[in-house]
Design a protein that fits this description.
alpha/beta, 7-stranded mixed sheet, 4 helices, globular
Length: about 140
């Protein structure tokens, strides 16, 4: 388990530490709106070699990116999903089985489609503006 407190200016350092820890390619990001989930995913994508601008896929639910090395990364925002069947209908299980990095915001809305082998990252915005991140 990894845990740290950071300010948004330290995001690059935190992303590097997350990638250095033993982790799975399926990463679940939890935290309230505004906690920094999307911001962390943008930095992780950058450090994995994605040079294009990354955005939250809130309305599209999934965005696909290619790293400079040709590796595929998927960024999911499941906030708008109402039930697990929607995730299956959209073929999320195929994305998750692809072996690519899958960064998933609001994973609780995807139900049992999430494989057992994943890394859970929780971000809590603290009163002083810093973030507490735990990774398990």
């Amino acid at each position: 388990m990894y845990q740290a407190t950071f300010e948004l200016e330290e995001l690059s350092k935190i992303a590097a530490q997350v990638l250095q820890e033993k982790h799975h390619r399926i990463m679940l990001f939890e935290g309230e709106m505004g906690a920094g989930k999307t911001t962390l995913i943008k930095e992780l994508s950058k450090q994995l070699g994605v040079s294009e601008n990354t955005n939250s896929p809130t309305y599209l639910i999934v965005n696909q990116y290619q790293s400079d090395q040709g590796e595929t990364l998927y960024h999911f925002d499941a906030y708008r999903l109402k039930e697990e069947e929607e995730a299956y209908a959209m073929g999320f299980d195929e994305y998750l089985d692809s072996g690519a990095y899958c960064f998933i915001e609001w994973p609780g809305r995807m139900g049992s489609i999430i494989p057992d082998e994943h890394t859970r990252i929780k971000i809590i915005k603290q009163e002083d503006g810093k973030r507490l991140i735990t990774m398990s």
